[in-house]
Amino acid sequence: MKSYVRGPSLPLIEKTVDEVFRGTVAREPGREALISRHQDIRLTWTQLEEQVGRTAAGLWGLGIRPGDRVGMWSSSCAEWFYLQLATARVGAVLVNVNPAYRAHDLRYILECSGMKALFLQEKDDRTDYHEILGEAREGAELSLRHAILLGTSSWDDMIAAGVEPGESPKDPNDVVNIQYTSGTTGKPKGVMLTHRNLLNNAYLVGRAMNWRSADRLCLAVPMYHCFGSVMGSLACVVFGATLLMPSAVFNAAAVLEAIEQERCTTIYGVPTMFIAELEHPEFPRRDMGSLRTGIMAGAPCPVELMKRVVGDMHCSEMTIAYGLTEASPVITQSSTTDSVAVRVSTVGRVMPETEVKIIDRESGETVEVGTQGELCTRGYLVMKGYDKDPEATARAVDSDGWLHSGDLATMREDGYFRITGRLKEMIIRGGENIYPREIEEFLHEHPKIADVYVVGLPDERLGESVLAWVRLHSGETATEEEVRDYCRGRIAHFKIPKYIRFVDEFPMTVTGKVQKFVIRQKEIEMRQLAAVAGTETA
Ligand code: AMP
Q: Which of 274, 307, 430, 447 measures 20 to 30 Å from 228, CA to CA?
């Protein structure tokens, strides 16, 4: 039996985000749509519609028109949801920007997305975003016309100058969102996703959890990532469920408090977040009794951790999802009716209207059941392409429409999948994706550094952490702290290497290619990380 499956057929949503949103407002006018606890905002669907209407008018007044790109660079907040729906209403393309980005990262996104407007928070306890934007803009030729600071008069002015927008575009195959990810190689690329991609993925994810409008989601994951803005907010729009933001950035105590006080039924997180919640001193004192289901995803999910979430966190119908941004994102997910044993140890089965095959990387042939290979998927969920990069798109999506994930997986005879490794050179640290090449290129700019290679090391709490092997120019000396200081404020904090080792040479193949797996193996031995490396995951 070959490792190929096609999920069940069912009618997909053939509407735009705005059409689905308006339908939900009409169906559930008085039910709570959004609760942003740190902003003290609680809105029914009717009230959310008012906010979205005003925001859409504001965008139109700024001169935003169908097809224009509009960036959102902020941690979780009510405005994130308003903008997501308002950009869709006016036919603009929302560009998600990671709030952890610093000047170097931000400039890259501003340049390649060609965004016309950027929404950002002014500052928080740790960061002055406005200042970073200033640095990122310095000397760059950008199409950016408007930088709107959330919660300030620039936002109020935009709303005040609102103009009734033109009619909403009606084609579900239009691009509505660009999310940056590196794909299987290289620098971050803009993944172009359509209404049809995103709404249907959101719908199928909620369906797998058996969602109803009475469900209340505690969203611990950030909105900039598809986990937050597709499986989170858009799924709430499709089902009329309540979106609850416990805090601006992840805070385990705030999550636990929100679940108890708001009687949440659903919890989302990457493994690192669940570890922090279960280990928090408040955990035993908080009532988790309202929880029923949820999703763990984004990184390999340890079996033992899943068991604790099902048992100790009262998530008897907890699921695991697997996917990637290019697949809108979810490809496989367990369902609430799967046995606990299957739900904690696999990433579930193929979603409806989705095909999956596992291929041999060398021959491209579909492998036998139980054999490891690269997971590929096809169907409504495959992205429209990488923005302005047809070559990279052709490498990721072949001529038959198969998206190559860069992940290694096995399929069982009963159709359940396990993720067994990664072909692509990506590090996932606490759910944040890191592309070694990007850090290497950045460190190459350091005047003392002659050469550098970055790999991921196993980490008990974060899944993986960043290690850099650095060769300095001859005669130079440097300290680890010096290198980290150079990174601080320039690149996102999660990209800064935790471990740095200064070396004179790198392990090479005979053809002169650096053997990163040897670097990793050596470090695992030297740092005694073998047990962590061997953690069993779904
Ligand atoms: P992103 O595009 O940020 O959603 O990252 C996608 C990548 O995260 C995938 O290609 C996988 O390498 C990894 N990933 C996502 N979900 C899982 C999972 N459940 N188990 C293992 N790895 C996962």
A: 307
427-533: CATH, from 3.40.50.2000, 3.30.300.30, 3.40.630.30, 3.40.50.1110: 3.30.300.30
Q: How far is the CA of 350 from the centre of ligand 1 (A)?
A: 15
For the domain bounded by 43-170, which CATH number is listed? 3.40.50.980
The answer to whether residues 222 and 228 touch, using CB atoms and an 8 Å cutoff, is: yes
pTM equals 0.94
Q: What is the pLDDT along the chain (538 residues), one digit of tens a residue?
A: 999 999 999 999 999 999 999 999 999 999 999 999 999 999 999 999 999 999 999 999 999 999 999 999 999 999 999 999 999 999 999 999 999 999 998 999 999 999 999 999 998 888 899 999 999 999 999 999 999 999 999 999 999 999 999 998 899 999 999 999 866 666 789 999 999 999 999 999 999 999 999 999 999 999 999 999 999 999 999 999 999 999 999 999 999 999 999 999 999 999 999 999 999 999 999 999 999 999 999 999 999 999 999 999 999 999 999 999 999 999 999 999 999 999 999 999 999 999 999 999 999 999 999 999 999 999 999 999 999 999 999 999 999 999 999 999 999 999 999 999 988 889 999 999 999 988 999 999 999 999 999 999 999 999 999 999 999 999 999 999 999 999 999 999 999 999 999 999 999 887 778 899 999 999 999 999 999 999 999 9
Backbone angles phi, psi at 40, to 5 degrees: 60, 45
Describe the crossing of helices 129-137 and 103-113 by its angle, rounded to 10 degrees: 60
Q: Is the peptide bond before 436 cis (omega within 30 degrees of 0)?
A: no
Residues with CB under 6 A from ligand 1: 181, 226, 297-301, 320, 322, 324-325, 329, 347, 405-407, 419, 422, 428, 433
